[in-house]
Design goal:
There is one protein chain. The chain is built from 3 helices and 4 strands, in the order βαββααβ. By secondary structure, it is of the alpha+beta class. The protein has one domain: Alpha-Beta Plaits. Strands 2-3-1-4 form a 4-stranded antiparallel sheet, with helices on one face. A hairpin with a 2-residue loop joins β2 and β3. The radius of gyration is 15 Å and the shape is globular. The chain starts with 10 loop residues before the first strand and ends in a 9-residue tail after the last strand. This is DUF3579 domain-containing protein. Pfam families: DUF3579 (PF12112). InterPro entries: DUF3579 (IPR021969).
């Protein structure tokens, strides 16, 4: 019997564009935001060596179509609801575009 497909958690994309389409500044905003959220990790992963050198799996900076973005995993809300509120307020206060989506893995090459 085939296993049911694994459901990927929903993600929010915070685009580095305002609602009027202007680029958000400073240019390193995505890295800064992800740095603030770097302490939020899945249970059992808090004590890993050198965790201070890595972003949280719940907040990742990416570049999409030449636009800096932050991908927020909805599971952040389960780990720390106030962190999710902070992120959503940051996007709203800075008039940033927010999209519901999920990253898809690259197709196998071969």
């Amino acid at each position: 019997m085939a296993e049911p497909p694994t459901v990927k958690p929903k993600e929010l994309f915070i685009l580095g564009l305002t609602s009027s389409g202007r680029a958000f500044r400073p240019s390193d905003w995505a890295e800064r935001l992800c740095g603030v959220l770097s302490c939020y990790r899945p249970p059992g992963r808090q004590q890993q060596s050198q965790q201070h050198l890595a972003y949280s799996p719940y907040a990742k900076p990416i570049v999409m179509n030449s636009v800096k973005c932050v991908v927020i995993d909805e599971r952040l809300r389960d780990v720390e609801p106030m962190a999710m509120t902070f992120v959503l307020n940051f996007a709203r206060d800075n008039d940033l575009q927010v999209l519901d989506a999920c990253l898809l893995p690259d197709p196998p090459q071969g």
